[in-house]
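[recover] target loaded
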């Protein structure tokens, strides 16, 4: 079912799957990464697997991504936090969700970790897949996926593989309290990273494991940033997510 959520005059578009009910008891909100949208391979794959094990999902595109309103150049981690908050409120107020899970890949993992902390009383479990907390260090060094800039004199926009990323993204990223916020979430958290991740060093996922109080951490040998690998690591990762969210222990 297609859904629309309003945030500050912008329409965020997404899809509710795994249920036909108007009221949903349990729901996993699935968040995509940088330069992606709700139809990314990881986002679709993990949502499909969760539906198969009986957990309804809500995927959505952040503002400026996919079919959602907005300009990608206006996107910041802060703006995506605001997007995610509206989706959490939609789940609770419109769908009547009682058991809420947040699942995020890459930058979506960063959003998940911070929003889970802000809404620790509403979010039952969190899942961080290849969380891109390196975005803060990268912004301080003036680099982003092969593009470089002067971190002391950030331009209005930076071209990152054809995407125009606004200077505000990098300015706010430099001072982003990612781990300082995430450590306040003390409910069960699953963290999965690929040992061969060439986009985000697995160190940044492991650091979540050290600062958050209630975590399970898996480092998948041979897996890339999207958790894929020659030996079915991505499917294994999705299995781990499903087991974690369905575990009643």
């Amino acid at each position: 079912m297609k859904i629309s959520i309003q945030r500050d005059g912008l329409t965020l578009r997404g899809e509710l799957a795994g249920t036909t009910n108007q009221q949903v008891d349990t729901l996993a909100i699935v968040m995509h990464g940088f330069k992606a949208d709700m139809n990314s391979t990881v986002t679709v794959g993990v949502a499909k697997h969760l539906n198969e094990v009986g957990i309804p999902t809500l995927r959505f595109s952040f503002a400026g991504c996919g079919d959602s309103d907005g300009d990608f150049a206006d996107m910041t981690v802060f703006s995506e936090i605001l997007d995610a908050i509206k989706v959490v409120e939609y789940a609770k107020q419109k769908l009547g969700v009682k058991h809420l899970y947040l699942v995020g890949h890459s930058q979506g993992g960063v959003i998940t970790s911070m929003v889970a902390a802000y809404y620790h009383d509403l979010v039952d479990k969190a899942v961080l897949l290849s969380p891109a907390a390196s975005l803060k260090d990268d912004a301080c060094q003036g680099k982003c996926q092969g593009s470089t800039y002067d971190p002391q004199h950030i331009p209005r926009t930076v071209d990152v593989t054809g995407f125009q990323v606004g200077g505000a993204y990098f300015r706010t990223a430099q001072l982003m309290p990612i781990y300082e916020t995430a450590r306040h979430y003390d409910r069960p958290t699953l963290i999965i990273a690929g040992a061969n991740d060439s986009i985000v060093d697995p160190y940044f996922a492991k650091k979540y494991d050290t600062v958050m109080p209630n975590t399970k951490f898996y480092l998948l040998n041979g897996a890339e940033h999207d958790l894929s690998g020659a030996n079915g690591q991505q499917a294994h990762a999705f299995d781990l997510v499903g087991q974690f969210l369905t575990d009643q222990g």
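[recover] notes: The chain has a mean pLDDT of 97.
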